[in-house]
Amino acid sequence: MSTRTLQHTIESAHASDGAGVKLRRSLGGTHGVRVDPFLLLDEFSSETPGDYIAGFPAHPHRGFETVTYLLDGHMLHEDHLGHRGDLKTGGVQWMTAGRGIVHSEMPQQENGRLRGFQLWINLPAREKMKAATYRDLQASEIPVVALPGGGTAKVIAGTVEVDGQATVGPIQGGSTDPVYLDISLPAGGRFSHPIGSEYAAFLYPFEGQLDVGSNGTARTLNTHSAGVLTPGDRIDVTAGKNGARFLVLAGRPLREPVVQYGPFVMNTREEIEQAIRDYQSGALTRT
Ligand code: CO
User: Fold this and answer.
1) Span from the CA of 116 to the centroid of ligand 1 (angstroms)
2) 276 CA distance to ligand 1 middle (Å)
3) For residue 209, what are the contacts with CB-CB under 8 A and spacing of at least 6?
4) Sorting pLDDT into bands at 50, 70 and 90, what band is 203?
């Protein structure tokens, strides 16, 4: 078994999206760095309503999946098909935009903390034009596993095995076979987890720091930075002196050309031009 170490770090940068929601963008930021099949990772966290209250009014997507994980707060998702998803603390919305969706994501609170993530996962060429689908997962549908030595693992996608007992997340399989874990560790706590060598993987600590790799060769990954991992077949991490909370994200790379124009992610320029025409004509959202 070879342990994955830090290959490179993508520091998040302050950004604003939607109608002025303040966020930290690591993947998909100004340098356009992606980790195939992952296109973008935004972290939003604020107790100041002015940072989030205007939300994300109606906007389109085509060609990929958006995964919204709310740590604190309440958001309402509505789309052109009449689908409504109430996203509450600890819940996840897994949206496969496919050929097209126009939706809004609006905070349902006037004060208090709004905190969470939006991750974009690419779809293979053969699935970019399939019909849109959703999974709306409440916190109670996402299993939480106690880790030996302290800490917990929330299993959104993929499987975590502790003492021979497998805990399976509600999202499984698909072309990119994603792993999405939210791990909480006490000071000095360790987490070791197998990830197939053919999968791309990165870590994102949002509280505390992590030492990534085996004892002796571990490197430190700072809060709010995406740590892209070298090839290998497992991860070994140790929380810093204040403990840590972090996302583990992994998936099977698509190895296809990526042409992105804002919320449209396709394989060619022509497909992007078609997506823009379809959005302007209304064809993007016609079923
Ligand atoms: Co959106």
Assistant:
1) 14
2) 16
3) 220, 221, 222, 223, 239, 240, 242, 244
4) very high
